[in-house]
Amino acid sequence: QVQVVESGGGLVRTGGSLRLSCGASGRSFYVYKMGWSRQSPGKEREFVASLDWRTEIPTYADSVKGRFTLSKDHARNTLFLQMNNLKPDDTAVYYCELRTSPVGSYNYWGQGTQVTVSS
Which pLDDT value is given to residue 102? Predict the structure, then answer.
């Protein structure tokens, strides 16, 4: 079984920064892709960013381009999301997602971490 655990959420003012972390652990798995999505009350979950683990090519939602940056610790199967210039619209529960198969969709998710940006 694989576990995905997020951390780093919190309360910040508009223009502030936060760094989210997501660690994957377990037995006998390989990371092909990790990413983040988010969900605000009354809204559907939306894509935020993802990282191809082998090529290290990131993909970002238009709404976060230029403000959010992905990085990783390959040895620890950990993904980081540096969030700068935060806006109230970024307020959401952020979920980490993991894909352990070469193709297909994410197959593991974390419990989520709350990010609140005050105006």
Answer: 92
